[in-house]
Design a protein that fits this description.
about 325 residues; Rossmann fold; 6-stranded mixed beta sheet; 6 strands; about 10% strand
Length: about 325
Amino acid sequence: MEKLRGANIPRMHVAKRPRMCNIAMRQENSDLDTAIDCMPCFMKMAVRGARLAAPDDHAAHERVVRKWAAMLPDMDFSQSPPALARTLNRLICDETGCGDVFEEDKVTSNREVMEVLPDVKKVVDASDHPLATALEAAIIGNYIDRGVDHDFDWAAELARLEKVLDEDMVREFADRCRAGADVLVIGDNAGEIVLDTLLVRQLQSAGCRVTYSVRSHPVLNDALMADARMVGMTDLCEVVESGVDTPGTVLERCSEAFISRMKEADVVVCKGQGNFEALHGRWPGAFFAFKAKCARVAEQTGKPVGCSVFGRF
């Protein structure tokens, strides 16, 4: 695992949109609406995104920050943070002319994690409970997130994989992922998607039919179909786009085809904090697998900030 200790991820053309689903689901079903606690994070996202999109255009940086600050008071805080982040992403793209702010960052993240993947795979394969170990590794990959301000060492944690997930919940998950089950894994970030291949392989070894989903449009460092191809996910299982342009599976932004996929799946696994914020309380029975990266989400899950979270909420 020596490569893991030295690994480091840097801090930091839009396709035609599919027809969006007009499902009659109320946002109030989720208690993870946007709170004032989210405001510092949103402002940091604006600064970081503007600088990355147009490194030398200081005027554009200021325009983005000023316009975003002016927009916030009129935002609908009953929406989830990922729903509002879509507006910020659009603002940054419009003001800088950059269609995919984190494009280079995503490629770098994928390459970095692909370098250490063989070492992590050896640990998973040698584990007494490979599915649980693959799940834990995939959750650690959720550290690679440009939507939150954190300083977690994902490589160091991978180098010392431990049994930290709730054993009863993992057992329930394994019981539901029996041979013949249709499992939908809703992906999250680039880099993270590399470790998700380990989870997909273990689910397939259990006899499951696995589908993996990615975002349809660039937003933050969330994985797209290009990332799925780069890391070999498309060679491993069927990969579909969700239709969303949000850093989380906001149901109102999903395509009708993807909503049908979610309904047809026997098991839905939602990777990442953004998917938790968007789907908590809105898709009963779904499993959530992510790192708690802010105090508000940590409070919702009852886990400390930085903790691996796996469960149904």
